[in-house]
Amino acid sequence: MTLGKPIISMLYPRLSTESTSMAAGLLLYGGIAIIFYGFSSILNGVLQGVGKVNFPVLSSSIALVFHVLLLYVLLKYTNIGTISFIIATLLYVLIIVAMNYWKVKQYIGYTVEWRDSILMPLFAAVMMGAVSFLSYNILYYVLATVMGEYVRNAISAIVAILVAAITYIVCLLKFGGYTEEMLLAFPKGALVVEIAKKMKLTKSG
């Protein structure tokens, strides 16, 4: 979300300034919906796993009705253009998540672990966004006198993405309370544990 414009400029250098700004805005607001699509996928999997295969279809159908209604109202009575699709999509996925979570809680008694499942990933994401924004702008400024606009933007964006990923992982390991046993369940878990131990980012237990 924080690197929307640099990424669009890197991938589509021939876009006009207006088109680049519009696409970056869609990427920014669409990033919010992606978070809830992740929740939706997990909840759908849980419901299917416990035999409630029809409920995700029901929740999606209900959400689709509200999605279409809101989209119609926004397109007819506002002038926000393509942002209407983002807002309507966000409502669509929010309804799905709310309904599916209610069903999961009702059927298996699951309650979200707010600290580990929501607050810590959110904190890590905010830190990642801040670091990526700063690293991009600092590097972009430093490279101003030594290379052209496209190369300068591309290098700054790629470095910022890498720095952002590292920041997110470090924040989760340092403050998220991940244990060695949890990390071993990850792909290449043994390697992750070894690196985390060297950096003192995890604990046993």
Descriptive report:
This protein is mostly helical. The protein has two domains: 1-111, no CATH class; 113-205, no CATH class. 79% of the residues lie in helices and 0% in strands. The chain contains eight helices and no strands. The protein has helices at 4-11, 17-49, 55-77, 83-108, 114-142, 149-175, 180-184, 189-198. It starts with a helix and ends in a 7-residue tail after the last helix.
Summarize the structure.
The protein has 205 residues and is mainly α. The protein is built from 8 helices and no strands. The protein is flat, with a radius of gyration of 21 Å.
* H/I helix tally: 8
| Distance, first to last CA | 35 Å
Cα radius of gyration in angstroms: 21 Å
Uncertain regions: pLDDT < 50 for 5+ in a row? Answer: none
Order of H and E elements: HHHHHHHH
Structural class by helix and strand composition:
mainly alpha
Q: What is the averaged pLDDT score?
A: 88
What's the shape?
flat
Percent strand? under 5%
Number of separate strands: 0
**Fraction of residues in H or I helices:** over 70%
Biggest pleated-sheet summary: none
The tally of structural domains comes to 2
